[in-house]
Amino acid sequence: MTNAIEVEHLVVARGKRRVLHDFTCSVPSGSVTGLLGPSGSGKTTFMRAVVGVQQIVSGTVTVLGHPAGSKPLRDKVGYLTQAPSVYADLTVKENARYFASLYGLGAAEADAAVSDVGLSQAKDQLVGTLSGGQRARASLACAIVSKPQLLVLDEPTVGQDPVLRNELWQRFHALARAGSTLLVSSHVMDEAGRCDRLLLVREGLLIADESPAAVRERAGTDDLEEAFLRLVQAQESVQESDKEKVA
Amino acid sequence: MSARLTFATAGRILRQLRHDRRTIALILVVPTVLLTLLRYLYDNNPLLFDRIGLIMLGVFPLVIMFLLTSVAMLRERTTGTLERLLTTPIGKVDILLGYGIAFAVAAAVQATIASALAYLLLGLDTLGPAWLVGVIAVGNSVLGMALGLLVSAFANSEFQAVQFMPAVVLPQVLLCGLLQPRDQMAGWLQAISDVLPMSYAVQALTELGANTEPTGVMWRDLGVIVGCVIVALLLGAATLRRRTP
Fold first, then answer.
1. pTM for this entry
2. CATH number for the domain harbouring residue A177
3. Contacts of B16 in chain A (CB under 8 A)
């Protein structure tokens, strides 16, 4: 299986603070890969590096065989930012149609994306009048409208009710079956089990890059929340003993 | 650069405006009310209204478009839509030209209504042709738009953006020759006014007021305005960074 994303020794700093330390990982094509970690762990920074809008210090990010953010990728990668980035003074339909037009697509594709995220009823409403969850879905519609080869979704299920969250995850897997690769971030561990692969991040360090089953096995628990805690503790004790060795 | 993407963006911006009825009303009504005020301010001196009213036909659209676009572009930057656009096939120049075309349409409607009112109802009288006055007025509002797009890069909030109006536009209004002929200012001040684009906009309108035929100076001034628009748009494009910290 080829990799949709290859990241080697990625280092990112924001101001003087290192946000990502020597990140190396890959995301297999056709997978739904979860990027999990607490708030502030560097998930958004990593995703921005993948779509090529993040200034990096060193390392390489290769997406679908091209350098991240390079021109051939612009119609192959869809990006959902964490805060809904849609125009509040346009209707849901108008937003989707504008983003569709950027890929040379028409009204039919735009309207299909709106119904895919369950917003058909609200399609003529101004985005500014929608609830937070609906607004996030309007933004999602604009990301999936071009059916990109790689979809980078930053916390797409935040604020959605459980039924909708379930539907969205089913849709993500349907997109993967149709050939897309999805990188989905979340800070809720119960969503980790829905992914084919997991990248667990804490304080800018990658502490796991494997399948949920492998994470469970390594940590010796079925509960992914618990597993994450144990991996963090294991890593901290490694760091402690490293420090002692240096001392 | 892509004409299709530029026009798609211009259409999107006009649709955003269309949903904002109050802004449309303000764009169209404010200059006409202010011109009417001027007309009756100089009730006993129609010659002065011919001079000041004519200049204001150029100044009002510039100020209004400057404010509108600086805030509109700031919103694009702060709500994340710009970052998102830069991951799609659209180019930076397409985005800025889209803004340029959309607001030029709004400016043309505004300038046409304001000019029609000034000539037909308020009795504005110029030696030069009214249609050229309209052209310069539209050119001025496009200039205001281009400057607004550029300064939005230096603002982090709407509070900061609106304050660029007194910082960037007001000095030009003071130095453009409206309050005092430019050749009667202190030399160093005149030198500053020589590099401010609004000085040329006002000079072009004054030329039209005083001559029956468009003069060489007027065409040169119009050229300066167009040049400033292009420079401001290019500088604006340079401030749109795909990769940010």
1. 0.88
2. 3.40.50.300
3. 87, 89-90
A199-228 burial by CB neighbour count: b if 16+ within 10 A, else e? bbbbbbbbbbbeebeebbeebeeeebeebb
Phi, psi of B85 (to 5 degrees): -55, -40
**Overall residue count recorded for chain B in this entry:** 245
| Residues in chain B closer than 8 A to A98 (CB atoms) | 8-9, 11-12
**In-domain check, residue B188:** yes
Range of the structural domain that residue A58 is part of: 3-76+148-246
Give the closest-approach CA distance of B231 to chain A in angstroms.
25
Question: What 3-state class would DSSP assign to A57?
Answer: coil
CA distance B1 to chain A (A): 12
Q: Does residue B244 belong to any structural domain of this protein?
A: no
For residue A93, is it within any domain?
Answer: no
The residue segments making up the domain with residue B195 are 3-239
Over residues A5-42, the pLDDT tens digits come to 999 999 999 888 889 988 899 999 999 999 998 888 89
Question: Is A182 part of any domain?
Answer: yes
Q: What is the ipTM of this complex?
A: 0.88
Confirm if A110 and A143 have CB atoms less than 8 A apart.
no
Question: Residue A225 in contact with residue A189, Cβ under 8 Å?
Answer: yes
Q: Which residues pair with A197 in a beta bridge?
A: A33
Q: Does B19 touch chain A (CB under 8 A)?
A: yes
Q: List the beta strands (DSSP E) in B118-244.
A: none
Amino acid at A45: T
Distance CA B144, CA A139 (A): 31
Domain count, chain A: 1
A49 touches B at CB < 8 Å? no
- Give the separation between CA B222 and CA B185, rounded to whole angstroms: 23
Residue indicated by tokens 């030009």: B172
Neighbouring CB atoms inside 10 A of B93's CB total: 18
Q: What is the pLDDT of residues B61-98, one digit of tens each?
A: 899 899 999 999 999 988 989 999 999 999 988 998 99
Q: Is B212 domain-assigned?
A: yes
Strand order in the sheet with A58-63: A17-28, A3-14, A58-63, A66-67
In a domain, A132, yes or no: no
Nearest to B71 by CA among B136, B165, B3, B4: B165
CA dist A201 and A38 (Å) reads 8
Q: Do B66 and B169 meet the contact criterion of CB atoms below 8 Å apart?
A: yes
User: Can you say whether residue A79 is alpha, beta or left, with left for phi > 0 and alpha for psi between -120 and 50 degrees?
Assistant: beta
Q: Is residue B38 part of a domain?
A: yes
E strand or H helix that includes residue A236: helix A224-246
A71 within some domain: yes
Please state the domain count of chain B: 1
Give the tokens for residue B182. 């430019």
